[in-house]
Model the fold of this input.
Amino acid sequence: MCAGANCPAWIIGHLVLSSRGMMKRLGVVSLPELPEGFETRFARDELAPNSDDYGDVSVLLPLFEQHHDLFAGRIETLTPEQMATPLPQPHPMFGTLGEMAAFAPVHVAVHAGHISLIRRGLGRKPLV
Done:
């Protein structure tokens, strides 16, 4: 389709790692176990998104759902005061816990759009 474009497997793995990073900022320490080499395979460096081997991709959607549910559950517990808490190391896209919470679903939606475009480019019908 497009040389160098991210494939759906990498996108989902990236979303898992993004959720993990955000949960670590929230102090979540008990995270789902990842398959060996996952963090390297789905990194944001120049090589990982262009790989042709993402391992057993059947684990990706369940891992995404686990992380998404855990993240959403943690966000629901935050008070307005906690949401206003500045992050010790601000991210370019967010500086407080509340801004991070607002960024997360937008981040997922953007990447879901990428997957939709890939599907349509391959001639597949929309899922919704």
Notes: The chain has one domain: 8-121. The CA atoms of residues 41 and 48 lie 6 Å apart. The chain has five helices and two strands.
